[in-house]
Amino acid sequence: MPSPSRTDAGGALPPAAVALMLLLCGVWGLNLVAMKVTSAGIPPVLQAGLRSVVAAGLVPLLCRPLGLTFGEWRQPRLLLPGIAAGLLFAVEFIALYVGIGLTTASRGVVFLYGAPFWVALGTHWLVPGDRLTRAKALGLCVAFGGLVLAFAEGLRAPGGPDMLAGDLLCLIGGALWAATTVLVKASPLREASPAFVLQVQLVVSAPPLLLASALLGEPWAIDPQPLVLATFLYQAAGIAGASYLTWFWLVSRHSASRLAAFSVLTPIFGVAAGALLLGEPLGGGFLASVALVALGLWLVNRPAG
């Protein structure tokens, strides 16, 4: 993997970056199915904490053949924002997992994937060259409209008495996800290697996640079924390891707001994966929602002019 550019490129994403983001969204969409399967044997917040622990051990093994190093640990100007990013990373997953337990899955997904709007606003004010243009704003709205259409049936389903609290926690989770991305782009972390940016978040996030699991009363018991262990390993190595490393490499080189906009494809891929692997039904407006998301992403990625 080549060394990242140190410039804040706010222009349209090149085809290679678009292809990588499509691949990442597909991988992350499949992760939504993996999380469901893993939760049958490992409680969700404990699952997130253990994922950080295992991934923190695997990332150096992945980075060694790529020539990526972690020397930034000795630089306080990078370590301090790295610790902040790790804490944001931990609280994001705590809010998300608790929130999903209080609201419906469809509402949780929609509130979580408002994150690209927060990224666009944050980079507009804090990252030179990554401005929120009219075309980008329109594209975000159109893509988000496609996401809402994909989950329209679930949004109409009745929720429990704590649904609004769950909605708020999922919204906070999305905002913290965005804050982590903006922090990486707007702080000295933009000068660090993607390997360091990821590794510091994994190491810092593990203790708060494990503590939160205990405080939430989750049973610290793992059902060692082969499928549970396989989907957990997919999350640790494939998601928290390889995919997040690729994500931070992309963020170091390209417009964070344009990259984040593609994340609305993740739940779309997740719905498709659920239909293919778990036999879950596709909503009647699924194809229309895909078309809207595609149109929105095209608008977001149009060159400024």
TrEMBL record:
Entry keyword set: Membrane, Transmembrane, Transmembrane helix
Alphabetical list of Pfam families matching this protein: EamA (PF00892)
Listed name of the protein: DMT family transporter
InterPro entries reported for this sequence: AA-Vitamin_Transporters, EamA_dom, EmrE-like
Subcellular localization, as worded in the UniProt entry: Membrane
All copies of domain EamA, residue ranges: 17-151, 165-301
Source species, domain of life: Bacteria
Membrane topology, as annotated: Multi-pass membrane protein
Transmembrane domains' residue ranges: 12-33, 78-98, 110-128, 135-152, 164-184, 196-215, 227-247, 259-278, 284-300
Sequence similarity: Belongs to the EamA transporter family.
SUPFAM superfamilies: Multidrug resistance efflux transporter EmrE
